[in-house]
Amino acid sequence: MPEEKSTMDARRRFLSGASTQASSIYRGSEVRSGTVMALFAAATNRTAPLAITVGKIALSSKTLEGEENAQLPNESSTDAGQEQQRIMSSPRLDSRAQSGFSKSSLYDQHRPSYPANAVDMLLDAVRVAGIPGASIVDLGAGTGKFTELLAKRDERYDILAVEPHEHMRKELERKALDNVTVKDGLSTSIPVADETVDAVIAAQAFHWIANGDSLKEIHRVLVVDGALGMIWNVEDCCLGLAYGDTAVFLIPSTDNQTKSAVPSTSWESKLKDLIWSLDDNQPRFRHEKWRAVFDDQLRSTPLTITAFANPLFSLPLGEHEEKWTVWLSKEAVWDRFNTLSQIAVLEGEERERVRQIFDDAVNSDDVETNEKGEIALHGVTVTAWTTKVP
C-alpha cells in the first residue's frame, strides 16, 4: 500500500517537470497539439484524455462547423441562457436553489444512490481507485448520497464534503460518516490549501457551478496530476441530450435547448414533456450548458492552439453511461419526482395540476408493473471526467 502512494508521488514530481516544458510550448507560441499530447501522455501513462487534443476539440459544438456558421438563438432562448449563466456564475447559492432543496430529508430519502459499476469506473478515471487515504473533495455534496459511497470504500479516503445549502449540510452532518469532514463552502471558495486534493467530484451538482471561476478554484486545489469527476443519475423523464441507443443526433428544441433523447416508454415521455413545460431557467443537466465551460477554455482553430489559450483541464472529456431500471410504487415515483426543485416549489392549483398529469401518466396502458404492483422506472447514470493541466 505505501508503495502505491510513493509511486503516485514520484509520478507527480515527474509530471511537474514535464508540465513546465509543456507549458512553455503551448502558452508561448502557436503549436500543433501532438507535442503537448506526447509530453503529458508520457508523464502520466494514461490513455484517458489528459492533454489538449485539438483534433478532437474540433468535434465540439463550437468548432465542428465553425462559430461563424452556428445557428443564432432566438431572443427568448438568449434570455434563458443569460439567466442560466447568471446563476452558474453567481458567487453565492441562488435563492431558488435554496427553496427548491429546502426539504432536505425528503431529498435524501427519495433520491437514488449510484450504481456500483459507475462509481468504480469514475473513481478509476479520476485516479483514486485503490489509493489508500487519497484526498477527495465532494463538491456540492448535498445530503451525502455520493459521500456515503466514498466513506464505505476500503481505501478509507480522506473526504471533505463541501455543501453551501444549510439544510442539506445538516442532513449530511447528521450521518456522521467515517473519514468525512463537512464544511460550508462554494465552488469558487473551496476551504482547502493549494494543490492538496487528489480528486474533486461533483455528484448531481456540476451543472449548477459550470463557470470559469469554479474551474479555476478546482484547478487551484488539485495536485499536479489531480482530476475532476462528475456524475449524474438521470431518469428518462429528465433527459435532454441524447444518451444511449435512443438517439444519435442533437435535435434542437424551439427554445434552443436539447431535448432529443427518447424515453423508454410513452408514459415517461409524458412526464418529460411536463418537466420541460415547467422549465424555470435554472441550470439543469438536461440543458447541457455545463459542457460549454470546458470548450470555452480554448479559442482555437481545429488544428492549432494559439498563444492566448490557457486551458485548465484536458479535453475531450472522458464519458460513460450506464442504463438502469428500478421498481417503485406509484407513490414512491411521485416522491422521487417531487425532489426535483422545480416540482418541489409548486403550490396550490399548479401543484394539483402537475399531480393530475403525473397520475394520468403512471396509470397509462404501457406502464410495466410487477407482482407487487410496482412500476418500472428507467434512467441512466452519466459520468464525465477530466484531468488538471498543470
TrEMBL record:
Highest taxon listed in the record's lineage: Eukaryota
Which terms are listed as keywords in the entry? Methyltransferase, Transferase
CDD domains referenced in this protein's UniProt entry, alphabetically: AdoMet_MTases (cd02440)
Domain Methyltransferase type positions = 137-228
Q: Which Pfam families match?
A: Methyltransf_11
- The residue stretches assigned to a coiled coil in this entry are none
Alphabetized InterPro entries for the sequence: Diverse_substrate_MTase, Methyltransf_11, SAM-dependent_MTases_sf
- Where is this chain compositionally biased, Polar residues type? 71-88, 96-107
User: Where is the stretch described as Disordered?
Assistant: 65-108
> What SUPFAM superfamilies would the database entry show?
S-adenosyl-L-methionine-dependent methyltransferases
Q: Which family does it belong to?
A: Belongs to the methyltransferase superfamily.
Please report the name of this protein according to its UniProt entry. Methyltransferase type 11 domain-containing protein
Which species is this record about?
Coniosporium apollinis
